[in-house]
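Before a colleague's protein record goes any further, I have to sign it off. Thanks in advance; the entry in question is below:
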Amino acid sequence: MRSGVTVIQHIYDTHFAWVEQVTRMRQRWERLAGLIDPAVHERVAERLDEQSRGAAEWRDQINTYFFRKSGVPDAHGRRIH
């Protein structure tokens, strides 16, 4: 790629980054507890938790698929199943 990163590394990086981004969103949302209607806060928190689980599952599935096909490990040493 133009950035100098391999395609496989780009795949790994973007999927790890999405999980980190969702985690940060959830943490920011938690800081709003007490400032928002409790029922609304809880519903959004549940959805963010589901988003986090889904992002982690998707990261693991995609990264594992490409790792097994390519045999190329993550340049940052992150665990790929």
